[in-house]
Amino acid sequence: MYFLLFWVLLHCWFNMWGELMKFEDCMFYEDWWNSLEFGTYYRKWNTVVHEWLFHYVYTDLQRFSFNTFTKNFCQIATFLISAFIHEIIVTYALGFFYPILFLMFTGPGILLIRNTHNMKNKDLNIFFWFMMFIGLGILLFLYLQEY
């Protein structure tokens, strides 16, 4: 289901609109399936959202604070803003507010973005996929239960 949703949304849907609008650079994602850590996954999963957040939130936080905010603070603030926007989209799409996605973004999402550097590459990819399936299962179970 995860791969099917990815393929339908980020490949077929975006490429269809890219072709219709004659958008020449149709790189909507990179090789996120080879990610060794969640930070890489978040950057590669949806490059459209990542580029927008990077240029209009992360760099603007640094620029308008005259570099008084640290890079870590700007990264976490960008992550929280992204989680909030994703939660708004899910709330309107489902018709009810149930902030499990926000909690998973801000809890394990922030913790795992930095704490996976001590394993071997093979172990990191296995850990990444294990956590992806666990996280997706939790999200689907809790949202379906609430629905």
Could you walk me through the main structural features you see in this protein, from its secondary elements to its overall organization?
The chain is globular. The model has no long low-confidence stretch (mean pLDDT 84). It has one domain. It is built from 6 helices and no strands. It has 147 residues and is mainly α. It is 73% helix and 0% strand.
Short summary of the structure?
This protein is mainly α. It has helices at 2-20, 38-45, 47-64, 71-94, 100-112, 121-146.
Helix content: over 70%
Q: Give a quick account of the main beta sheet: strands, pairing sense, barrel closure.
A: none
List the secondary-structure elements in sequence, H or E: HHHHHH
**What is the number of helical segments per DSSP (H or I, 4+ residues)?**
6
Strand content: under 5%
Number of strands: 0
Number of domains: 1
Low-confidence stretches: none
Distance between the termini: 19 Å
Report Rg: 16 Å
The average pLDDT is: 84
Q: Globular, elongated, flat, extended or rod-shaped: what is the shape?
A: globular
**What is the SS-derived class?**
mainly alpha
